[in-house]
Amino acid sequence: MDSLLWHLLDPLLAALVLGLGWAAVSARDLRRSVVHFIAFGLLLAIVWARLAAPDLALAEAAIGAGLSGALLLGALRDEPETTDYADAIPGHVSIPMSLFCLALGALLAWVVWHTLGFADPVRMADRILDELPATGVSNPVTAVLLNFRAYDTLLELAVLLAAVLGILALGPARAAGSSPGVLFNGLLSWLVPLLLLTAAYLLWAGAHAPGGAFQAGALLAAAAVMLRLGGFGDDKLSRPLLLRLVLTSGVAAFLTVGLATTIGGRAFLEYPQAWSGALIFFIETAAMLAIAATLALAYLGGRPARWEMPSAGDTARGHL
Q: How many whole angstroms separate alpha carbon 171 and alpha carbon 218?
C-alpha cells in the first residue's frame, strides 16, 4: 500500500515542481512571482526529503525558501507600485531565449542519460563509507564537505565573503521598519531563543546526523531577520570590529587549519586523524558564524549604521 501511495505522489511532486517553477518565472506580477518562488523552495525541500537527502532538504528549506524569500521580499520594498511586467522583456527576445533554454535542457538530459552506462561501477558513496572512520565524523555529508573536499567548502565561503563585500559596497543598509506591535514582539521573545537553540543543535548534530554549519548559520540569520522585522535597528551594533571578525571567521579558520597542517608536514587541509573531529567542529563553528553574518547583512542590503571603524582622533576625543 505504501509503495502504491508513493508511486502516486512522486509524479504529483514532479508536476508541482515544474508547475511552480513555471509560475515563478512567468508571473506578470513580481510579488506573485516571489511567492511562487518561496513555495517552489519549500516543495523542493520535500522532494529532497523524499530522495532521502535530509541535509539538502534542511538547506533548501532554510536558505532556498526561507532566507532567499526574505531577501526577495525585502528587495520588493524598493520597487515601484507597478504590477505589470509583461513588457519588461519583448516577445522577440523572450521566445528565442525560452526555446534556447528548452533545447539546452533537452541536450543536457540526453547527455546524462547516455553517459550512465559509462559510469564507474564503483560508487563514490561506497568508497566514502569505507574511509569514514578516519574522518573523525560519522555523517558522510560532513565528511565530504569538511574533510575529503574541504578545499571546495573553503572556496564556497570565500565566494560568500566576496558577495557580502559587494553588498557592503552598495551603500548604507535599508532603514528598519516600524515596530509591528506587541503581538509580534511577544512572538520574537519565544521564536528567537528557539532558533538559537535549534542552530546550536544542528551545529553539534552535523558530525553524526543531518545538520551542520550551513543549516545552523541559516537559522541564526533567520533570527537576525526576525529581529530586524521587529524593529531592531542596526545602529545598536556597537562593535564593528567584532562584526568584521565574524564575517571573515569561516575563511580564517580554514586557512589557519590549512597552514597548520602544511607546517606540520601534511598536505593543505589534511587533518591528523586524532584531531579530525575537533578540527572539523572548530571550522564548522566559525563557518556557521560567518554564514549567519553574511546572510544577515545580505538582508540589510548594505552597510550597517555603525560599520565604519572609529578613527584615532574620534577615539581620543571620546576619552576627553
A: 24
